[in-house]
Every structure is written in C-alpha cells, then in structure tokens.
Amino acid sequence: MASDRLKPLPWLAGYAVATFLSFPVGGGGFDVGAAVAWLGPACLLLGLRGAPPARAARLAFLAALVGHTAVLHWIYVVTVTYGHASPLVGVIAPAGLAAYMAAHTALFGAALAWLRPFDASGARRWAGPFLVAALWTALDHLRSVSLSGFPWATLGYAQHANPALLGLAPLGSVYALSFATALGGAGLALLWGERASRPGLAAWAGVLLLHGLGLTIGHATLPDADAPRVRIGVIQGNIDQGVKWNPAWAERTLAVYEDLSRRAATDGAVWIVWPETAVPGSVYTDPAVRRRLRTLARETGATLVVGGVGVVSHDGGRRFFDSAFVVDADGIRERYDKAHLVPFGEYIPLRDLLGRVFSALARGIAAADVSPGSGPRALVLPVRDGSAVPSGVTICYELLFPDLVRGFVGDGAQVLLAITNDAWYGRTGAPHQFLAITALRSAENRVWTARAANTGISGFIDARGRVREQSGIFERGYLVEDVPLRAAPKGGSFYTRRGDVFAWVCWIGVVAAAVVRRRSPTPGGGTEG
Predict the structure, then answer these.
(1) How far apart are CA 157 and CA 180, in angstroms?
(2) Which is nearest to 529 in space by CA: 131, 176, 188?
(3) d(Cα 495, Cα 21) in Å, to the nearest integer?
C-alpha cells in the first residue's frame, strides 16, 4: 500500500523540475523552456493517474509548490537583499506566492480527477487531451485575475522562443501558447503512460496544426519596410537598488542619466526613454529636477520619457504615484500613472488587517501606499517633422497583464515604451523571465516595444515578439534603434480588438464538459466519441 502511494512521486518530482526549467534560469538566462515545457503537463498527468479529486488536489498542490518556489527563488533577493527583511521572510515570501500559484494547480488536479477525460484505457475519449488543454488554459487565465492576479510563469511563456507558437499570440494571447503546450503534454502522457496511441497522436496532430497556424499568422505581412519610423534611445543607468533612494546619490544618478541621454541624442535618438523611477525624487515638487529635465530636452532636441514619482495634493494631504513623464523643451507635456500596482511591493492589501505585520517594499517612492492610476491610455509624443505619435508607456508590473497592455494599443498606441526597474531581482533568471513576458505583449498586439530597465535587460522587441537587440544585466549604457510605427489596422490584432476570447472559449469547453459529467457520472458515460 505504501509503495502505491510512492508511485506518483517520481512523476510529480519530474513536473517540479520541468516547471523550474521551463523558464530562463540564472543570471545568464539559460533557457531550454521551448523543449522542456511539454514535459511539465505530461509528468503532472502521469503523477495524478487514478487519484480521486481530493488526493489529486493535494498531490498537484505539493508538486506545484516545489516547482514554483524554485521558479520564484529570486524573491529572496527582492525581500532580503534590497527589502532588508529577515532571511526567514526571504524563504517564506517565494513559498507564499508559490502557494497561491499551486492552489490553481490543485484546482486543475481536482477538476481533472472529477471530469475523468480519459477512460480506463485512455483510448476512447478523443476529446480527452483537448479538454485537459482547455482546463489548463482556463486556470492560467484565472491566475491572471484572481486576488488581483499574479500570472508570472504562465505555461505559455515557456514557448517565447518558439517562433511558430509565438505566432498564435495575436489570436489568443499567451493563453494560446499555454493551450498548445498543455495539449502536447497531454499527448505525451497518453502515449507514454496509457499506450493510448489514437488520442495521443490526435493531440500531437493538433499541436502540429497549431504550429502551422502560428507560422501562417506570424509570417503575415507586417509593413515594417514601408512604415514610418522613429529613432528611440533606451537608457540603462545601472543604479544599484541599495543606493537608489539615497540623497547622497541623487546628483550622481541624474548626472549618469543626463550623460547617457546626450550620447543617445548624438546617435540620433528622437525619443529618449529612462527606466521606472529613474529620477531620484519628485518631478513635480522639485523645481530643480524639472528645470534639469527641461534643459536636457532643449539641449538634445529630444523628447524624454522618464520614470519618476508623481505627487498630487489630495484632501489636505498628498497622493504618490509611480509615474512616467513626457518632457520636452517646454517642460512636462503629459504624465501616466501606473495602474496595476504590486501587492506588498507598492501597497498593502487589506491594510487595516495586514498593515501591522507587513510594510511595502517600495518605500523610496512613498512612505505610505502608492496610489494606482486610472488605467491604460496612449500618450502623444512629438516627432521632429511636427507630427505626433500615440504611444503606450507601460510601467513594470503592468507588463504581466495581457488585457491591461492591450488597452494601450486599443487606445491608439503605435509603439510600446516599457519602463521597469529590475534591479530588485539581482543576478537571477528573473530579468530574463520578465523580458520573455514583455516579448509576448509585443507579439499579442503586433507592435514594437522599446524597453528601458535600470539594470537590464533593456532592448527592442519587434512586432512578432522577437528580441532584436538587448543589453546585458548590471551594465551601464544605452541602445538606439529605428523603430517602425504601426497604426493598428481596424483596431489592432484580433487579441487587441477582442481580448481574452480564446481563454473564454476554453472556459466554455470546461463548463460544458462539467455539465456532461454531472449528467453522466459513471465512467465512460456521456462523453465518448
């Protein structure tokens, strides 16, 4: 009996290892995700074979807890190295976030065991692997919205270097890539564990068709050659997080960014983009900072997009924002405030209950909680021919949310300017994981992205989601690129126009299967094809 309980452990351990290796690892960004990601769903399915719903949920939770804690190891650096928390908090924090992610995997395990998409031989229910993929995708989508969402390490991101599946992003976002990967994993599980050749081969036939569809969409004509271009410079100041908010470093920090901006302008940059909170102070309340930015814009002839702290008077006090400012020779033209904030990083959820135990990590921005902005909107940036271009300035954590980012392009943005501060992550795989996430946002909306990160990775991503140029991490410098501007035809890609339709179709499929299962609770009843 004990041996029966141990049988799933090698498969569940394999799932945890495959989950860890599905996303870039280490400071060098070692990346085998496109090859390994298929094994994660396969190992999980094999580990859950025959388990009733409650046991399947427990096994799935524990396996995912281990795997996702490994993926999120960089949170130790965030909390201990730069957040100055105790090492105990540094251990608990990634495990706590991983538990949130693992709860969704537990739902997958329980639902899988209850739905029973395969019969005893696994050979007769042709819908089985497709239902598995739909269930996986629906729960990936749920993780993007539940409790404000934390969709880091969504399965589809593992395929960011697979050009064929990347082509599905304009149709179904990262969720289409999750579906394809889970479908392939289900096919592997059937072929290996059940020797069920027909549904396993049907699953892989579906995967090949999705590759073909992705290649077709990915190679659809994109008018880069004929599109108008703007020369954009992205600045990487490489200011250590430990001194970022130290007043003694303020002058030195501004001098670094001014020098790099002048060099980028010498190389022809018309827009110069600084990272998130690059300005060590408040652009609004410090007239000296405003004057220096305006002088720099006038001197270089460029439009600056700079990350800084927005301060607004409110009810006799002040509200603080994580903001992006558009500055030209006349001063501040526009400001965008980050709309989706980091829980426990920029604000404390349920502050009355949890505020005595936790404090927000981003204390350099504000002594209290940072306030959220009103939501995505395009900012209009001038170019030298006298025209203006709508652009979407996305700030750090917002890039995790496909539905939020598509709002910028839906509002008319012809290019995305992504500003972030990845110094928090240290020399881990997180900057490389975040770059992959950013690449999906470009592919989904069929627009280029210019990415400015304090310590890297900065770079340029084309409208197919391919990283065309990138910096190293913890290097000081700048990059300049002629970026095509794309006035989105008929409102942009299908995903830009319609949003998470593909994910909702997966939800409909899962709900329909649940209705059939409830009406035909006996194995094999009601769903055989």
Answers:
(1) 12
(2) 131
(3) 28
Q: Please compute the mean of the pLDDT values over residues 375-386 and round it to a whole number.
A: 89
- For residues 180, 493, 449, 37, the Cα torsion angle rounded to the nearest 10 degrees is 0
**Helix, strand, or coil here: 309?**
strand
* Helix extents (H) in 22-52: 33-36, 39-47
Q: In terms of Cα–Cα distance, which of 380, 405, 406, 379 is closest to 394?
A: 405
Is a pLDDT exceeding 50 seen at residue 1? no
- CA 315 – CA 275 distance, rounded (Å): 30
Model confidence at 524: pLDDT above 50 = no
Beta-carbon neighbour count of residue 99 at 10 Å? Answer: 16
Using alpha carbons, list the distances in angstroms from residue 166 to 211, 299, 328: 9, 41, 37
Q: Confidence band (pLDDT; 50, 70, 90) for 393?
A: very high
Which one-letter amino acid corresponds to residue 384? R
Residue 480 confidence (pLDDT): 98
Give the pLDDT of residue 495: 96
Instruction: Order across the sheet with 449-453: list the strands.
Output: 379-382, 388-395, 416-420, 449-453, 459-461, 467-470
Q: How far apart are CA 482 and CA 364, in angstroms?
A: 34
Displacement of CA 214 from its chain's centroid (Å):
20
With contact defined as beta carbons under 8 Å apart, do 152 and 342 qualify? no
Confidence of residue 248 (pLDDT cuts 50, 70, 90): confident
More confident residue, 347 or 115: 115
pLDDT digits (tens, 9 = 90+) for 165-195: 999 999 999 999 999 999 999 999 999 876 6
| Contact between residue 24 and residue 30 where contact means Cβ atoms under 8 Å apart | yes
What is the distance between the alpha carbons of residues 309 and 395, in angstroms, rounded to a whole number?
A: 12
Give the burial class of 328: count Cβ atoms within 10 A of its Cβ; 0-12 exposed, 13-18 middle, 19 or more buried.
Answer: middle
In this structure, what token pair is assigned to residue 92? 């608990």
What whole-number distance in Å separates Cα of residue 268 and Cα of residue 300?
9
- Point out the residues that are catalytic: 276, 338, 396
Is the previous residue joined to 75 through a cis bond, with omega within 30 degrees of 0?
A: no
Distance CA 23, CA 432 (A): 9
Pairing of β 229-236 and β 449-453: unpaired
